[in-house]
Amino acid sequence: MPPFTLSLLQPFWRRLRIYALTTVGCAWLYSTIYQESFARDLVYAACVVAIVQCLVAGGRYTLAYQRRRQGRNDADGLQKWPGWQWMLPWMVVSVVIGYFAGIRIGDILLGIRYTPITAAHNAHTMIISISVALMPTGFLTYVFYTRNRMAAIELRAETAQRTAAESQLKLLESQLEPHMLFNTLANLRVLIGHDSLRAQGMLDHLIGFLRSTLAASRTGSHTLAEEFARISDYLALMQIRMGPRLKIQLDLPEPLSAYQVPPLLLQPLVENAIKHGLEPKVSGGRVLVTAERQAGHLVLTVRDTGVGLDAQAHHGARFGLPQVRERLFTLYGEAGSLALQPAPNNDGGTLAVITLPCSRSNEK
């Protein structure tokens, strides 16, 4: 459950303002038509508007619930709307009941001795009063209808955006896997003729990497421990290829290992660190992948001691970073981000930082 903030009350205050303006408008109209006291008519109008809106809202939810139980949806796809063919008659019934009940409650509040309404008001007066009450009722009901229709349209747009993000992940996987696989197989072919033991080790790590990749492709998220295991297999493959030129350090604190993260999140960053940072550097260097929690956020970093961002422009564009940024924005909005910057100390290289919100499910 999200923390309580004043923003959660905005829909309530917005609706309360609309009801208040409706009550004042009805009272002014009644007092103008009948040349009566505005304060007196304000009490009656408040009672009538409150009862009518309660009846309309209750009927709306009840009718919509019955239609959902019958498996019927209106043409606009609104889950809380039973359709105008049901609401128009119910609005008339609600106004008639609310008018007589509101007048009676107003009499009690004002201390007026009860007299039958039919004796105190002729038919012409009642028709005018009920007609006046129907106008704000129809207006408020239409406002509810339009707002819920807009909400339904936004929901469909969000669903389409989520589907597009999932398709984008599949496309990214289809690009990354052959990209890494062809490079590994090319190196494996060379090693088979020169160093069969290293070739066998590379093949074992490749099998482990492909197994974890297949498992990750079947789910929308997995644990951070599984993400690090996948990166470990990938870096082990690269270490066999690069030999002592590549040094690896993975730092995943145990309390963070169960955190859920999107699959294929760190691999593009690690692959770029190897390809654009360390491979162009004759002496090689180190790749450090870490996870930590900072101020309610999960921070994942990929640091290399390679040639740095300035020199990487000569080695081609980085692979997969726009897709990672778009996935983070789709899944987390402004709370998820990817930053790429020069490493902060004298070792040089590049630092990639992913920031994710820590959800409550992860904290259990």
Task: Please describe the structure with a list of short key phrases separated by commas or semicolons.
two-stranded antiparallel ribbon, 64% helix, 364 residues, alpha+beta, 11 helices, Heat Shock Protein 90, elongated
Summarize the structure in words.
- There is one protein chain.
- The protein is an alpha+beta fold.
- The protein has two domains: 6-157, no CATH class; 195-363, 2-Layer Sandwich (Heat Shock Protein 90).
- 64% of the residues lie in helices and 12% in strands.
- The protein has eleven helices and seven strands.
- The strands form two sheets. A five-stranded mixed beta sheet has the order 2-4-5-7-6, with helices on one face.
- A hairpin with a 7-residue loop joins strand 6 and strand 7 (350-357).
- Helix 2 runs antiparallel to helix 3 and helix 5 packs antiparallel against helix 10 (321-332).
- The longest helix is centred in the middle third of the chain and has 72 residues, at 123-194.
- The chain is elongated and about 110 Å long.
- The model is unreliable at 1-9 (pLDDT under 50).
Short structural summary:
With 364 residues, the protein is an alpha+beta fold. It has helices spanning 10-34, 38-69, 84-110, 117-120, 123-194, 196-216, 224-242, 267-278, 309-312, 321-332, 360-363, and strands at 222-223, 246-251, 260-261, 285-294, 297-304, 337-342, 350-357. Helices cover 64% and strands 12% of the residues.
N-to-C SSE string, H for helix and E for strand = HHHHHHEHEEHEEHHEEH
- Given as residue ranges, the uncertain stretches (5+ residues, pLDDT < 50) are 1-9
Could you name the CATH homologous superfamily of the largest domain?
Histidine kinase-like ATPase, C-terminal domain
What does the overall shape look like? Answer: elongated
Please describe the biggest sheet, giving its number of strands, its sense, and whether it closes into a barrel.
5 strands, mixed
Please, how many domains? 2
Radius of gyration: 33 Å
Taking all residues together, what is the mean pLDDT? 76
- Helical amount: 55-70%
The first-level CATH class name of the largest domain: Alpha Beta
